[in-house]
Amino acid sequence: MKRYYSLWKSTWWLWMLIIGGAFYLSTLSNVLMCVSLVYLPICVVIFLWFGLVRYDDQGNPLDIV
């Protein structure tokens, strides 16, 4: 769980921008609302994947070569 906390702490502004953009697009039309319903779960999966790839169990960044 520390890896996801470290990822959130370093990139919270980016994820808030992505989620806010999805909510904004969902207010424009019904088609974009349906797109947002697919887009938000994909963002959750991407967040979890980045946490696994970029941080170890203690929340320390991994050296990516």
What does this molecule look like?
- By secondary structure, this protein is mainly alpha-helical.
- The chain has one domain (2-54).
- Helix content is 77%, strand content 0%.
- The protein is built from two helices and no strands.
- It has helices at residues 2-26, 30-54.
- The protein is elongated.
- The two termini are 24 Å apart.
- The mean pLDDT is 89.
Largest sheet: none
Report the sheet-strand fraction.
under 5%
What's the N-to-C terminus distance? 24 Å
Low-confidence stretches: none
Cα gyration radius (Å): 14 Å
- The helix fraction, in percent, is over 70%
Overall form: elongated
Count of alpha/pi helices: 2
Count of DSSP E strands? 0
Number of domains: 1
SS class: mainly alpha
The average pLDDT value, as a whole number, equals 89
Order of helices and strands: HH
